[in-house]
Write a structure and sequence with these properties.
Chain lengths: 151, 140
């Protein structure tokens, strides 16, 4: 296993930014965490390729909740990353596996895994080439259930 | 004295553990986590010495299968990782594990690890599983 502290910390920063941007609605910043041809695959199997498609996906969620105030959103949504395992495949390629627990103002909402393929650009920044989101479970009355069953 | 790369490697080993033991297809990677003579002291779930014995425990132990069936446990979420050298000079790592079940219930335990640097990198020489009291909480 190759270990490079700068790469490892760059990937940890990417993971933190993913949560910071998604939890705070910074959609363009969130989309920029993916490579230009990056792929974001959601638990419903939907694959969203490229930054524009990924930004449109998040905009759709925001628009839905704006149009349906009875559905939420909750006071806040906080993704908590746990169990981050990184494997460097070279100076500009890596894989990562992590678990998450997502908490809203009401309760623990959904939990599962992130499976990532990562690439480091010429600017030294790590980005997602591919992120697959898998849920192990969710609150049937929570944000995730509404978000993915009613959109 | 530990260097920055040691902290990073040990954190990576501790975080790799759930990705191996939660996924049957990855049971063959126990040697990426534990030293060849490593020990997993799982308290009421037994003491398992060596790679083969640990792999057998995760893959086939009826005691573990019964515990998983009872708790419906899906994932070991590792948090609060703390790497340090103790007063004897041994390299230790404390972490907490939130075990999340399908129904949203959770149990919490502490891992108390002693690590050793092998020719393949840092590995856990001894892992003690310490259940927390109260043994379980409800997340929702």
């Amino acid at each position: 296993m190759t270990h490079d502290l700068v790469a490892l910390e760059g990937i940890r920063a990417l993971m933190a930014d993913y949560i910071r941007f998604t939890d705070n609605g910074r959609i363009d910043d969130f989309a920029a965490l993916f490579g230009s041809d990056g792929i974001f695959i959601l638990p419903d199997g939907g694959a969203h390729a490229g930054r524009a498609a990924i930004a449109a996906l998040l905009n759709g969620h925001q628009t839905y909740f704006t149009a349906h105030p009875e559905a939420g959103p909750p006071g806040y949504l906080r993704h908590n990353l746990t169990t981050l395992s990184i494997e460097l495949d070279g100076p500009d390629r890596a894989r990562a596996d992590s678990y998450f627990l997502s908490v809203t103002s009401e309760r623990v909402d959904h939990w599962g895994k992130w499976t990532d393929e990562l690439v480091c650009g010429a600017d030294g920044k790590w980005r997602f080439a591919k992120r697959v989101v898998t849920t192990d479970g969710f609150d049937p009355d929570g944000w995730f259930a509404k978000s993915f069953s009613q959109m | 004295m530990l260097e920055a790369i040691d902290y990073a490697e040990i954190q990576n080993i501790v975080n790799l553990y759930p990705h191996v033991i939660d996924v049957p297809a990855n049971y063959g990677r126990v040697a990426d986590i534990f030293a060849p003579d490593g020990v997993f002291d799982a308290g009421p779930l037994g003491r398992h010495e060596g790679i083969a014995a640990m792999t057998e425990y995760w893959a086939h132990s009826p005691v573990r299968a019964a515990a998983l069936e009872k708790t419906n446990l899906l994932a070991h979420n590792v948090v609060n990782v703390h790497v340090f050298e103790d007063e004897t000079g041994a390299v230790r790592c404390w972490s907490r594990c939130i075990g999340v079940s399908k129904d949203g219930k959770a149990s919490i335990a502490v891992y108390d690890d002693t690590l050793r640097k092998t020719d393949k990198g840092w590995r856990i020489a001894l892992r003690k599983l310490v259940p927390m009291d109260p043994p379980s909480v409800t997340l929702r």
